[in-house]
What does this fold into?
Amino acid sequence: MFSHIKAATVAKTLFICTILLVSLSVNAASLSGTNSTPTTLSGSDYIHFTNAYINDSELTNTGDLTNGGGTLTNNLNATLTNNGTLLNGGTLDNDGTLANNNRLTNDRSGTLTNNGTLDNDGSLGNYGTLTNNGALNNNHKSSLYNDSDGTLTNNLDATLTNDGTLTNDGTLNNDGELANNVTLTNDGTLTNTYTLVNRGTLTNNGTLNNNRRGLLFNDGTLTNNGTLANNGALLNNGTLNNSLNGSLYNHSQLDNENTLTNDGTLTNDGTLTNNGLLTNNNTLTNNNILTNNNTLTNNVTLANNGTLNNKRRLENDGTLNNNLKGTLNNSDTLNNNGTLTNDGTLTNDGLLGNNDTLANNGTLTNNIDGTLRNDGTLNNTKNGTLTNNHQRLLNNDGLLDNDGLLDNYGTLNNTNSGTLTNNDRLDNYGTLANNGTLINNGTLNNKRHSTLDNYGTLTNKGTLSNNEILTNYSTLTNNGLLINYWTLVNKGTLTNNGTLSSLGELYSSGMLINNGTLSNYILGNSGTFISNAGSMMTGNTYIQSHGTTTINGTMAQRLVNINGGELNGSGTITSNVTVNGTSASNLATIAPGNSIDTLTINGNYTQGEFGLMAIEFDETSIDWLDISGIARLDGILDFTFTGTDINIGTFNFLTFASVIGSFDSILLPSFAGFNFDVVFGDTFANLVISQSVSEVPVPAALFLFGPALLGFMGLRRRAKMAA
It folds into this structure.
């Protein structure tokens, strides 16, 4: 029973609603005039506009509504709601509220002008001209499509808000405020001259122009697969990706506060400021000002033709070219793990670490707050100038080749794994410490008030000029010209195969070997000095406190003072020579020859009370000290036999022009059956070896040999027998 009553009630209700709906709906072929009451257009009829229709109230379309060339105006306080299909092929002016809940199409011949509020909760397609002077809202899960033939203009003081999907295949001009909160895809031309804010995903596959006075603010993800040209302000607080086929041109202001990744071509002709993470995976070209305040990583090619300021961290893992007119300023950390080529000006006030290849063809300056660390290959080329300023450190752990001009005012440290090769000019005004390998093929100047310390291997094949202090602790080899104007200290091994000219003071406590030409003002030796055969040495004063001096070549000095140690060799000394130690426990020795040979002195020879002349002899030969001048003798004469069998005979070991004084002590070897005597003549001294005579009774011996012995004593001094 109740089911029958319920069915009747429903049928009655449907009948009443149908009557009301028919009273409020219009199904007609054309509309004109003014709508002043709430009206619903419904059904499947084709409604064609050929004239003007004004909505001054509430107009709702639930069917198919087509404006085929007329004018549809939605007035200021009116509401036009589309729940069906609205096709505009004429003029649609909205001054009130236009709500699209289904499908709104502005055809190629259509002009849609929004002066009020246009809310799209469905699908809005523009194939003609869509102009927004008010508020255009593309709401959640809705789509706004601008066709390739379409023009969508968001004018000054207007707002276009996208919370759905906005796709532009045509021309989108923003002169007002465009806010993308979800998805905006540009496959055509998007031009912004005022404010474009992206908080969602903005993908540019076409051309995106941010014009002068335009603000493009990215707080979401902006991906450029086409051309993005910035002539205004581009502020990135989100993620900006310039993809492989993308070209990003900045002609004005680009600020990155978060992540900017370039996989395509990024060209800066304005000001690019990085306060976040900027990663270049393809080509980044700076023609004006690029400032890095956080992290800039270059993995492929970064070309600087303007000013690149690194104030935080720049990692180069690819190729960084600072071109001819470029200026690269580093005030924090620049790590080169690839190839860094400087053809312009590179100034370091922070840490510049080269781990691979750095080529300087321009000007590279390590300033007062800078540290330049080379662990790779640093080549200062022919046109390059490398300057290490005061109180700064240039640390070379790799290969440093200088083919240009290298000026060091601070500390240049060539470590034990470093090789520094100078092929042109290196001027040291500070401290140059070599712990590795230093090769000079050009000109190396150690200037006044500077220090050059060699703890490794220093090889000079060019010109090495010392104007202050040069200290060798290890191995210094001169194959070229070494000029010392001030102080040269050798505590290691100094080998001269070229020309060593010391106009200042040269002190050697290590090993000094001369195979070439050595000239000196004052040379002090307390180590080992060897002047080999064929070498030449000239100078003023040679002083030895202890150690060994071996002259196998020629030595010409004003004075040679051996105050300790030994003088030996088989060369020629043109000088006045003094051999005299400081005490009985510190004797000075002259030992002619190398083993048995001749040492020539063209001058006077003086042996003091703490001097010792050491003479070696064998079966047939003896050392010979040949003195062209006066021999002043004192101290000790010591003979050492180096042979096997004693032979009798007379051996000349000393010649001179004249003699003054005599030895205090003569030490002779003791061999049974032989007598050893030293016999002096006017210009010579001989060692006489004779065979001992058998013992006879004392009276007979005195009778036979007494007169002869007394006469012979007037001609010689008998040597004391050695113990």
User: Anything to note?
Assistant: The CA atoms of residues 47 and 385 lie 82 Å apart. Confidence is low (pLDDT under 50) at residues 1-29, 695-723. The helical segments are 2-24, 698-713. The longest strand covers residues 499-508.
